[in-house]
Design a protein that fits this description.
The complex is a heterodimer of chains A (387) and B (246). Chain A has helices at 2-16, 18-36, 38-57, 77-88, 103-110, 123-130, 144-169, 190-220, 222-228, 233-261, 271-295, 299-317, 329-336, 339-352, 361-386; strands at residues 66-71, 92-98, 115-119, 132-140, 174-182. By secondary structure, chain A is α/β, with parallel strands linked by helices. Helices cover 36% and strands 26% of the residues of chain B. The chains are: A alpha/beta (387), B alpha/beta (246).
Chain lengths: 387, 246
């Protein structure tokens, strides 16, 4: 009871402190800056949604009448039967029967082929002798979403055909479809864009906007007046960070809702740890924004700096668009020092793979160290710049 | 007379470069002290030290009775500051700007309210209370910025080229505000490039190469240098400068 009272009076004292009151009106001022700039505000709120929709739906999921080619070296009862089934389906149009495996690559490059089905030699014989027969489904991974869909349709047809055969022949056997993705082995669909976009947007909102808003105060000379005033510089910086922190929480929520309900990307793992990871990343981005603002004296400089330091590396090197494993060694190494790389990797683990807390320990650890480092450096250089 | 600024041998070095070189002067309560010097003469550095922004390398400095070495918080609380950029928030309303700056200096909330009314009335800005600062004409912004800088009744107000880029008529009107402030006992420490403004000051110091080479009333300075106006005085002194414009 008494402890609560002590706490209460402490809180009251804290709130009555003129510095804290002023801090409150400063946070309010920052919200005014944001809310009165209608265009920017609209952009900040709509851009994440737009990007989500753009990435999610620009990948066409319509796969009716997909053009496919077939290479069938065994040409026996079973393969012919399966080919008939495929031809009969509304999903596929067989445009070519290939005569040799060398043609596969050429066909992919020449025509708008979605898939090539390759049967093994002696398909029926293998089936009877070993109970197993191989069929390979080759798809164009540059269009990952439709590649996925095409494969799943084809696998369905094969599985149905297998059941039918089983009824007739009563032999326990298996047709094993082997899926091979050409050109984009990682199969990056909307599943894989969601973590990347999360990382990019949070970084833009927190770092870019914070640094621009601090640079604006320098440009307009208001920073100078604030520094001459008895108001503590720590409060100035904090009051800058809070609105963008709130804004990024709004964006995080809207993006996660979009991802789950519109793009149907489930959150397989713990929502709690996903949010904790995101909060950590938001803190990191805010301190990065602070660091940029110590270097940049005008809004344009801040914009260019954050564009070069944040957005381009995040898009190119974080594994958001291009798989890190396929990069030259130097860029692989570089990608490891980009915070977004770790955030995106952590989000993938929790959101897509459904792994638990222990699996993202390395990500959490590295991001924490990076945040501490950035806060220390930017705080020091901020103080230094003031002098 | 009460001294509000006392400076003795104040020095600031950046590495090998001595930006401010053993300057000494005093400023008295209620006077308008002109702080002149060519670009790079060390004006800004000296002023930043007096405002508690920059620790001096050596020398003594008392501002409003507080030591600039180790009482910069108290110094800051007792001074006002206005720069050429006016430093108002363009996307905030007139009264929001006043409240914000009043709050920074710890003016109690109810006092802010009554003083805001008073201020707007005195300036004839009552209708502009809810206007955004960006919609005000230049001269009005300047008036408002100055009024905001002395809103908390500081002992001294530092004006860093407050009239830069403003036409002569507006400048003249601005000086009327400065006189009003001194009537209320506020000391004005002002830097300027305009020599006609130097004539308005009670006393003028002229910095050359980090030192104060002249300090007196405009009248005495003109006599001493056999000059028609302050511009000639300034030209004679500035010509001696060895330091290249930094």
């Amino acid at each position: 009871m008494s402890r609560i009272k002590i706490l209460q009076t402490r809180i009251q004292k804290f709130l009555a402190n003129p510095q804290v009151k002023t801090f409150g009106s400063f946070v309010q001022k920052e919200f005014y800056h944001i809310s009165r700039d209608k265009t920017s505000l609209a952009l900040l709120l709509i851009l994440p949604v737009l990007l989500m929709i753009l990435f999610g739906y620009s990948i066409n999921t319509e796969v009716k009448n997909s053009q496919i080619a077939i290479y069938d070296p065994s040409n026996d009862v079973v393969t012919r039967g399966l080919i008939e089934k495929i031809k009969a389906s509304e999903y596929f149009t067989v445009v070519r029967m290939l005569k040799s495996p060398d043609e596969i690559e050429k066909q992919f490059l020449r025509e708008d082929l979605k898939m090539v089905i390759v049967f093994s030699d002696h398909f029926y014989e293998n089936m009877q002798r070993t109970g197993k027969a191989q069929v390979e489904l080759l798809t164009d991974g540059t269009d990952p979403n439709s590649a996925m869909t095409v494969v799943s349709y084809a696998s369905n047809i094969i599985a149905l055909y297998q059941k039918e055969l089983f009824k007739i022949q009563q032999i326990p056997f298996q047709i094993q479809p082997a899926v091979k993705l050409l050109y984009n082995p990682q199969l990056k669909g909307p599943y894989y864009f969601v973590p990347g976009i999360l990382g990019m947007i949070l970084m833009i909102i927190c770092s870019m906007m914070t640094s621009i808003s601090i640079a604006r105060e320098k440009e307009f000379g208001t920073m100078e007046v604030l520094l001459v005033s008895p108001f503590k510089s720590m409060y100035i910086i904090l009051s800058k960070a809070i609105p963008y922190f709130v804004l990024s929480l709004v964006n995080l929520t809207s993006m996660l809702l979009l991802a789950v309900f519109m793009l149907k990307v489930p959150i397989a793992g713990s929502l709690f740890w996903l949010i904790m990871l995101s909060l950590l990343f938001i803190f990191l981005s805010l301190s990065l924004g602070l660091l940029i603002s110590t270097v940049a004296n005008t809004q344009l400089e801040a914009l260019l700096f954050s564009g070069m330091v944040l957005v381009i590396p995040v898009v190119m090197l974080s594994g958001m668009l291009f798989p890190i494993e396929n990069m030259p060694h130097f860029f692989q190494w570089l990608s490891q020092i980009i915070p977004a790389t770790w955030y995106i990797s952590g989000v993938k683990k929790i959101m897509i793979k459904g792994l638990g807390f222990s699996s993202i320990l390395p990500e959490l650890g590295i991001l924490t160290i990076m945040t501490a480092f950035l806060i220390a450096v930017s705080w020091k250089s901020f103080k230094y710049r003031l002098e | 007379m009460e001294k509000v600024i006392e400076v003795q041998n104040l020095t600031k070095k950046f590495g090998d470069f001595t930006a401010v070189d053993h300057i000494s002067f005093e400023v008295y309560k209620g006077e308008i002290f002109g702080f002149l010097g060519a670009n790079g003469a060390g004006k800004t550095t000296a002023m930043r030290m007096l405002c508690g922004l920059l620790p001096p390398t050596s020398g003594k400095g008392l501002v409003a009775g507080f030591d600039i070495h180790n009482q910069s918080e108290e110094v800051k609380r007792n001074i006002g500051y206005m720069s050429q950029k006016f430093a108002l928030y363009e996307d905030l309303k007139v009264w929001e700007n006043i409240r914000l700056y009043g709050g920074i200096y710890g003016v109690p909330e109810d006092e802010i309210v009554t003083k805001t009314d008073e201020l707007l009335k005195r300036l004839g800005f009552e209708k502009e209370r809810n206007s955004f600062v960006k919609s005000l004409p230049m001269g009005w912004k300047q008036k408002l910025a100055f009024s905001v800088a002395i809103f908390h009744e500081p002992k001294i107000v530092f004006l860093d080229e407050p009239t830069g880029g403003v036409d002569p008529i507006t400048r003249r009107k601005f000086w009327e505000l400065i006189y009003e402030a001194t009537d209320r006992g506020i000391t004005v420490f002002v830097t300027t490039h305009y020599m006609d403004e130097a004539e308005y000051c009670d006393r003028v110091s002229i910095m050359v190469d980090g030192r104060i080479d002249a300090l007196d009333t405009p009248k005495n300075l003109k006599q001493q240098y056999h000059a028609q106006n302050m511009n000639e005085v300034f030209q004679q002194l500035a010509r001696k400068a060895k330091r290249v414009d930094a």
